Amino acid sequence: MRSEELYEEAKKLLCGGVNSPVRAMKPYPFYTKNAKGPMIFDIDGNSYIDYCLAYGPLILGHANPVIMESISRQLEMGWSYGTPIENEIKLAKKIVRHVPCVEMVRFVNTGTEATMGAIRLARGFTGKNKIIKIEGGFHGAHDSVLVKAGSGATTFGEPDSLGVPEDFARNTIVIPFNDVEALENIVEEDSDIAGFILEPVMGNAGCILPKNDYLKEIRRISSRKDVLLIFDEVITGFRLGMGGAQEYFKVTPDIVTLGKILGAGFPIGAFGGRKEIMEFISPAGKVYQAGTFNANPISMCASLASMDEIEKGRAHEKANSACEKLVSGLKDLIEDSNLKIQVNQITSMFSMFFSENPVVDYKSAISGDKEKFLEFQRLLMKKGVFFPPSMFETCFLSCTHDGSDIELTLNAIESALREVYL
Ligand code: PMP
Fold it and tell me: Tens digit of pLDDT for each residue in 199-210?
């Protein structure tokens, strides 16, 4: 296998053989040759219906032709100027139009940079020091948020990273998801809290939904205590609809962080909020944020093309309906065979937890059988279906996943489950 050979070589040159921990797979990851629509193809001639979809950005599927065309036009004009361009204004207008809390925006390159900027902004604006985050919530790989983090940090059993000074971690308070009382207690006790950052739907300990009025309650409490509410919508932004989770649940945060779908697969991040808050960002204000590649012309152009395409092509409707079909078939399978598997879903994202009990927070997520999930995931790959290689990642659908993909996937799942539970 060429993938195996490349991995052996990679291990000598790249840390752990990969460039991001979630890409590591046992016994070795497949190396991708190309991808199109819902399909990803490896260099050994295997093809997979893709539910990882680059971990979320590709609601239009791989290699969308409209985006490709618009980027090639941009390429002819150059791709990095270090000066402002008109497209960044056009894209800002679109975000302001769609995302309820945003009046002004700063474009960066990754979700990590977006949450880093948003947290510094919350501290600068409020003059307070601490932040609250959710146990198992993931907001990128920077010091303030690498405390009980999800995604790769959970998968590899290292919720805290070496190299994060204790003094930093001390300023990050961790509470469970869906627990209003925990937030209430902390904000009553501590008057030095600048912001509360959370994924309104958790996506990095698997897909975990907020309970009934959870988001409304935390909005009420944070407003009362002058704690800025930061929705990290790097996953949910433009996935739960053009206005993200804040529009879906009708709860408006003070600051939002965006990434993934916003860039259609190109590097992007953004954070935005009310003008009075955002004007603290340099050069308007004194909270420093800068970047050589901020608002880079390729990402701006891909993003604009993709926003139009998502709306014109009714991408949400198509992806949601494919996901509902898949999840309803999956639930039937689980019920018919009386399996102890939980399925969480919202719009076009879902997760399977090999667990007896409903998954409502990090603790219930990690109580599942992650080894069994991995066995299932490997079997699925042999049958031509690629789920992310961890029970703590979310599966995504695109508008290119059609009825026959769903049927093939359900057949593969049925046969993999049979083998797992033999
Ligand atoms: N926030 C959330 C909710 C994420 O899921 C991620 C990445 N998976 C990030 C932030 C970090 O984004 P990036 O990988 O683009 O730095």
Answer: 999 999 999 999
Helix (H, G, I), strand (E, B) or coil at 54: helix
Tell me the pairing of strands 349-353 and 342-346. antiparallel
Q: Is 22 in the pocket of ligand 1 (CB under 6 A)?
A: no
* 96-110 tens-digit pLDDT: 999 999 999 999 999
**CA-closest candidate to residue 62, choices 46, 48, 83:** 48
- Tell me the sheet residues that pair with 34: 41
Atom of ligand 1 nearest to the CA of 110: 15
* Predicted pLDDT of residue 197: 98
Backbone angles phi, psi at 249, to 5 degrees: -95, 0
- DSSP 8-class letter at 110: S
C-beta 151 within 6 A of ligand 1 = yes
Q: Return the ligand 1 atom nearest residue 111 CA.
A: 12
pLDDT, tens digit, 9 for 90 and up, residues 133-189? 999 999 999 998 988 888 777 666 555 789 988 888 899 999 999 999 999 999 999
Let me know: does 279 contact 240? Beta carbons within 8 Å. Answer: no
Q: Does residue 111 line the site of ligand 1, with CB under 6 A?
A: yes
Angle at 151 (CA atoms; ends 106, 30), nearest 5 degrees: 105
Among 119, 151, 204, 234, name the best residue to mutate to test ligand 1's pocket (greatest count of ligand atoms within 8 A of Cβ): 234
Q: Has residue 82 got a pLDDT over 80?
A: yes
Please report the pLDDT score of residue 168 as a whole number: 83
